[in-house]
Amino acid sequence: MLKIYNTLTRQKEDFHPINTDKVGMYVCGMTVYDYCHMGHARVLVMFDVITRHLRRRFPQVEYVRNITDIDDKIIARAVENQEDIFSLTNRFIDAMHEDERALGVLPPDVEPRATDAMDQMFYMIKSLVDKGIAYQGKNGDVYYSVRKFDNYGKLSGKNLDELEAGARVDIESDKKDPLDFVLWKMAKPTEPSWSSPWGEGRPGWHIECSAMSTHHLGNHFDIHGGGMDLAFPHHENEIAQSEGANDCSFVNTWMHVGFVNINDEKMSKSLNNFFTIRGVLESYDGETLRYFIMSSHYRSPLNFSDENLNNAKSSLTRLYTATRGLGSSEAAMDEVSQRFDFEKRFNAALDDDFNTPIALSILFELAKLVNSERDKDIDQASALAQLLIKLGDYIGILQTNADDFLKQGVGLSDEEIDEKIKLRDKARAEKDFALSDQIRDELTESGIVLEDSANGTSWRRK
RNA sequence: GGCCGGAUAGCAAAGCGGUUAUGCAGGGGCCUGCAAAGCCUUAUAGACCAGUUCGACUCUGGUUCCGGCCUCCA
Asked: If you measure CA to C1', which residue is closest to nucleotide B12?
């Protein structure tokens, strides 16, 4: 039984889809005015892991992850660059897809863009205005009246009066209540705009997700996710909009991914302490990044540091080393999978609120068994190695050829290395260990590790 | 100020009211020409103070410290 921690109830719950044939999941994606950073990477990877697991647990999953391609920051950045907003957003959407591929993240089923969903937003805003839940201010902006929604605050555990007490005074706005938020915002003459029943303008940030999620998944769907910082106000407002407009429960399970920290502080654009995915990819491969992200539970903080990334790299190296040179038929693998309980325990770990650290620890137990069987029963070792690769696939790792993973890197070419190994083999055959050790030391200097075995010498990059 | 969450061995990170987490790093051994990898083995935990219990890292209360949200943010 799959259990998921639900932000709404603050506890782990058994997960029962509304429709057992098809699970609907919506995740708030990127606002595309810059390169994705490690915080985005965590959301991308974790919901990829979650989707992969859901797909193995249910007949069909529809995973929708939106793209916010219109907002104030995008407009500001486009002005700064003197470019059209679409040329800006298209560029960063391409970059995001590149980053995603490097992390082994499979594309969502649908990736709707806010600018393609104007009609859906109009429809929802109109419905809110008709019901008297939303109103147009003197400045033309359309606002959501939070006092009209009884359950406001149910997700984030806030209540309106306390929020009110701490609220900053909003001087220029026409809001009836400082906590009301914008559904439709009038455009200044130079700004990009869309024609709406309320005038030329652009949507508020929250309405797009309400409109797109319900459009693709229905008014009431299973899972809605995003970064922890979206719980309030973004998701709270989405609930207010969707439930206000549709008069039905919006989402059953709310999932929030924890922050990536730098020196125990949240990585964020405003603190300017962020690392972009592509920046990190210059020093570490995508799979190592992915492993690093999965090495802690998705709701815990994840501290970004070279030490932790190097740790991830070593761990992955151990797993790949175990599978190196081994492989078996599917039948043999199925047989060992039946005989040992690794797969069962692995799935149980993921069923327990996607506990990737436990799942990974099971891979290490399996790797240890592969290593110890290697000299005893090579067929069994091969079948177990195949199982290790299969379980890796469940969470999107270990799908590269082990040799390729272990040899990846820069410096000497493979041919140069093979040449030196040949020279060393000759020296060893002649028992000229001084020369052979000298060659090995030189290679070590270049970051190449040699491993002698009965089957000859293999190498990897450190 | 209001509301959340956290504090686990050298580092990272989980589960669990009583029995090995796991990875890296460390000690000892096996293997190796020597290494590396691997295997075996071993040490090092649970912020602090009370309480509940036959027994608490795990439950309850308090203290301290840290982080987050309350404004755009994944």
From this structure: A308
Protein residue closest via CA to C1' of B5 = A300
**Residue A370: which nucleotide is closest by CA–C1'?**
B38
Contact A146, A152 (CB under 8 A): yes
| Complex ipTM | 0.96
| Spatial CA neighbour of A39 closest among A23, A53, A28, A50 | A28
Architecture of domain A317-405: Up-down Bundle (1.20)
Distance A44 CA to B70 C1' (A): 26
The nucleotide minimizing the C1' distance to residue A431's CA is: B33
Domain boundaries, chain A: 18-266, 317-405, 409-461
Looking at every residue in chain A, the average pLDDT score rounds to 94
Average pLDDT (A116-145) is 96
Q: How far is the CA of A372 from the C1' of B28 (A)?
A: 20
Q: Is the peptide bond before A17 cis (omega within 30 degrees of 0)?
A: no
Output the pLDDT for position A166. 60
Chain B bases having any atom below 7 Å from a protein CB: 1-5, 11-15, 21-25, 32-40, 66-74
**CATH architecture of residue range(s) A18-266:** 3-Layer(aba) Sandwich (3.40)
